[in-house]
Amino acid sequence: MPSCCALCGQDGQHVICGGCSKHYFASRPQRCVQCANPLPRSGGVGLLQCGNCLKQSRAFDATIVVCDYAAPVDQLIQALKFRSQLALAPVFAKMLRDAVLLQAAGKKAELPDILMAVPLSAQRLQQRGFNQAHEIAKPLARLIGIPLRRDLLLRQRDTLPQSMGLDLEQRRRNLRQAFAMAPAASAKIDGRHIGVVDDVMTTGETLHALAKTLRRHGARRITNFVFARTP
Fold this sequence. Notes:
Layout: H1 18-25, H2 51-55, E1 62-68, H3 73-83, H4 88-104, E2 114-117, H5 122-128, H6 132-144, E3 153-155, H7 168-175, E4 179-181, H8 186-189, E5 193-201, H9 205-216, E6 221-229
Protein name: Phosphoribosyl transferase domain protein
Family: Belongs to the ComF/GntX family.
GO molecular function: transferase activity
């Protein structure tokens, strides 16, 4: 079991101590319901969507996030993704579960019928040894009681990492035909609400490309569950 906080190093029995949880994860800014980008503080009362989502259509319907992708939270994601600190994945999942419950508080929110993780290419999966999104999705599926499927979409080619300083048009070109429906998977998503899990959302182009593929095969609604959002 972890013997110190992954953020501040304080001795304890929790992966993230109570002080760090309160300091870095308690804030719940008003966010765009579609892409979860923080909405402006002034004049943003009552807004549901950000300017980007109003100007350009998104293939997904909603996004739920835990926090912004900023220091020192970015260290946690890098530790999971690049240093194989898999003990962080269930912590991310619990925080996402709490964000889902908070979103549903006071209103009748529709949970997905099926949960899936953003797939990695075979080459990237072999290099890393695990899919960090799937490691988060496994405990999240148990916590919210939704079946998790690994056989819906395939990442049919290895794209450049979206974090490599690509501009918006380069990101879109990078993701063209990146995802394909797995054999016999269309019948499993037709008319269903699909939840898509990922660790970080930057511009949303990866999730948009994935959602477009799901839409083409009949998905009725798509909700993203993402740990951190780059503002």
